[in-house]
Amino acid sequence: MTKELLNEINNLKQQIELLKKEMKDQSSMTRQMLWFGDYSFYSENLVFDKTTLTISCPKNVKVSYCNIMLYIPIKKFTVRVLNGNVCIGFVTVKEPIDLNRAVKPSLLHVLYYDGVYMGDDRSLQRSSFGLQDGVITVSYDEKTKFITFQCNDIEEKGFKGVEENNLYPLLSFKPDTVVQVL
């Protein structure tokens, strides 16, 4: 190969890497925007700050926890716990959410990172809300059917055999909690 051809190949490789980075950045920004747009159901007590990309549950709320759920199904999301206690996971439904009608409880399941499963198949359990700091990523692998939870350097395969196609991100906050969406 000639020197010019090698230079051209190297330039193309650099452009490809730049495009990959830009696509990753755009994907992250799109996911962040979903939390602050019209694509979520959330407790009225939550406070949203678009400049810092934080969602918080004030200290003085009169409930034991608050929730936010995206109604856009995505297979991976990441948050940073800045203060307080949070639980993270997915709501799964066996058919897509239709905003014009209620979802039947028998089709709805909640899968939290700490192994808590709420749905018709098992008795209702309560989450430990054990996540207090760090960056947490929840992802679903379509090939293995596993939901994986990663917090800082610890990775855990939380649920196996998840067949539902529609996974809706869920965050549950204890009072005096602040989370940044990444």
Automatic annotation (TrEMBL):
UniProt keywords, alphabetically: Coiled coil
Domain of life per record: Eukaryota
Coiled-coil features, chain-numbered ranges: 2-29
Name recorded for this polypeptide: SPRY domain-containing protein
Protein species of origin: Entamoeba dispar (strain ATCC PRA-260 / SAW760)
Taxonomic lineage of the native organism: Eukaryota, Amoebozoa, Evosea, Archamoebae, Mastigamoebida
